[in-house]
Amino acid sequence: MSINRGRVRWQCRRALLELDLVFTRFLERDFDRLTDDQVADLEELLRCDDYDIWAMVNGSKACEVDRWKEMIGLLRQR
Amino acid sequence: MNVAKRTFDAVIVGAGGAGLRAALQLSEAGLKTAVLTKVFPTRSHTVAAQGGVAASLGNSTEDNWHWHMYDTVKGSDWLGDQDAIEFMCKKANEVVIELEHYGMPFDRTDNGKIYQRPFGGHSMNYGQAPVMRSCAAADRTGHAMLHALYQRNVRANTQFFVEWMALDLIRDADGDVLGVTAMEMETGEVSIFHAKATVFATGGAGRIYYSSTNAFINTGDGVGMAARAGIPLEDMEFWQFHPTGVAGAGVLITEGVRGEGGILRNASGERFMERYAPNLKDLASRDVVSRAMTTEINEGRGCGPDKDHVLLDITHLSPDTIMKRLPGIREIAIQFAGVDPIKAPIPVVPTCHYQMGGIPTNYKGQVVVPKDGNPNSPVAGFYAAGECACASVHGANRLGTNSLLDLLVFGKSAGETVVEDFQSGQLKLKPLPADAADVSLARLARLDGQTKGESVFDVGLEMRRTMQKHAGVFRFDALLKEGVQKIGEVAERAKRTEISDQSKVWNVARMEALELDNLIEVARATMVSAEARKESRGAHVRDDAPDTPENPNGRDDANWLKHTLWYSEGNRLDYKPVNLKPLSDDVEPIALAKRTY
């Protein structure tokens, strides 16, 4: 099943301002260049709790799912 | 155009704490209930609430609801309605214990009771000493609460419409509310949700400000929809600000940083708080610090190329201390200010945090408007709860941890009232007017057909800058007057927004344009209400209404002890009395006094 990129873009709207800011930067800079496989990884990551995503982005928690690491790396980039 | 119609006993807009608590009441009573939400329920902004929820359980220190009521009325600077405040404080224990039974993982005392911690403004014996009243689940209280409520709703078979955006309120010729129109984001199709009861629980609109701690979803959708449908907005001049949000980003830097020794400095490096609060300096109360920062910026001593912020300096602390005690803050500074606070100070500005005003309701959660001489006449079929509503328990300034309590108590109360009205046969499914969806369809057609229009981003940015400059934490008559004119101009531009992508499916640009329509109503209401209120009270502080013996703290009870009501049509103001009489004889009215801590 193909993933609608608009849907994933909308799901980057989060409950925490910290993540909204991180995702805004990511959407402007990286999102359009992602392959379909990468968007699928991102969509899976977006199902996580906001505090867990923020902890992975700010490095206080290790990302334990290998296929998310690339996305976390992009989200961390300033 | 043919618009699909769905029929329910009740439709709830918003799935944060208030919406989920209301939905639970309805679903468990067997009402066919739909909850519309533009994001997945557990991604609502309730998640961000860290402090706790107030309840006078008395588990850790002696406490009772009378003391809680006193603190709330005083916090509100006497603008809160004492009937609603009594109701909330009395109900607090019940709703917190209920939540415990739903599986909320509260922190515990050694003997297994809910642990309670002290919080600013909470006192025992009417202001005499700190009390332990805040029930918390570590620093994730809102998050834990939302998850507990969501699970319970799943159990109760609440029907969720996730990633649906409500567009407009449907009212008939009598003014009764019959439901909402809403757009499914996946298809772009508009449907009518026809219901006997409509409950708004859409949260706040903190995104009207340039510097805001609120997540991007906080666009005041319910408040904007209500205003467009002719419902007045109450006390919209009152917004709670936090002194230290990261400049340009809004992310909160907690008070704990100043507690650890952080110092605020202006462009010349001066520790300016020594001039404003010689004793407490940087640890003075939030409003004192925020006003001092604003004065420094307004008088040209701000930092950066635009002189638009001050600096929070912790470079004198050892790197070890920063790494050990403030690791999260260091990460926020690096991520959002681009500075490592070990080496350089953090740019900060006073930042919008919470909306005290909103859709006027009574303590039962019914939306009320002036009609036939009654300032609080219920609108049939319409209810609201949480930050989008104004009960009014927060008045001119909210007491910490009363926001989570508000959404539990009034979410439940609105739900109970709907169930009562439903079971008594008072709620009827009135016939839909033929033009029920016309307003929404016209808005969408206008947006799709707009050419040579305005960019949503540009208009939104201009709105946020205008609000920050003209109706910020410290207010000036000339700036407010100019602000009224400017926000009117921005609102005119917002009528001509254009989107380049007109696809139906998952069109984020369209969503953002529709959200701006809601925000702009809130921004106009705030500016006009603030310009008109010529006193200082709670969070509304004017430089031309200073502290004098006749008007302590600049508060003018003789002329301004009243609620503002702003009407979108005609940009018109009205006022209604504050209810200084409690709900029952269990408590005497809390008499007017100067608000000092």
TrEMBL record, chain A:
InterPro entries assigned to the protein according to its UniProt record, in alphabetical order = SDH, SDH_sf, SdhE_FAD_assembly_factor
What organism does the UniProt record list as the source? Thauera mechernichensis
Q: Which SUPFAM superfamilies match?
A: YgfY-like
What protein name does the entry list? FAD assembly factor SdhE
A Pfam family in this protein?
Sdh5
Q: Which family does it belong to?
A: Belongs to the SdhE FAD assembly factor family.
Location of the protein in the cell: Cytoplasm
Primary location class? cytoplasm
Question: What keywords is this UniProt entry annotated with?
Answer: Chaperone, Cytoplasm
